[in-house]
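chain below, 241 aa
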Amino acid sequence: MDKSSKGAHPSLSPVSAALLSRESWKVFQIMAEFVQGFEKLARVKPSVSMFGSARTPPDHLYYRMAEETARVLSEAGFSVISGGGPGIMEAINKGAYAGKSPSIGLNITLPHEQAANPYQDISLKFEHFFARKVMFVKYASAYVVLPGGFGTLDELAEILTLIQTGKTPRIPVILVHGPFWDGLLAWFRDTLVTEGTISPEDMGLIHVVDDPAQVVEAIFKHYETRGFQPSVEEQEILLDL
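prediction:
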């Protein structure tokens, strides 16, 4: 085989060529999502990103817990960001909407579960999960995570990874309702730490609380000696997020 032709691709079929063209032009849609997010969210700091299950009904303890936590945060002066959908996301926006600070929804189109709730002062729509995930992190002063499924765990793992690797400044990561999280945290300690896949000090990235007032207390305690505005060094880190 001639090495000069190694790795060369045969001519694309018309269908493949059309698909490649669509993928190339997708970059402009992605750029538009980032620009929209940057322009809207840069003005609402300090903000707290909150997460939880889309499947939780309004009469559930977790729904009420999320609504009250978001309301307390909003009254304390934090803009509150959720995924904009039903379940706990709706509870988050509803609580924040009742408070004095903006209620923000980062909506995304999904085959199931995702329909925008009506409690949003600022509503953004995304097609791409990765663009949406950047917006959750980039302007957040804290992450507050309520009981949820794979999506919630994905967001939790994302922020822990970014902080652990230094790709985002350290912010409070607060898990609400200890009984829900106890098994996962035990596995972190007994398996991940024991096997050496995370360090013992990584467990210190996580706070567990059971009361909405404790969420606000944990956030203010983290920032009591420095304020919410990122330092020059942290701003540089966030530029490369």
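The longest strand covers residues 103-108. The two ends are 43 Å apart (CA to CA).
thats it, cya
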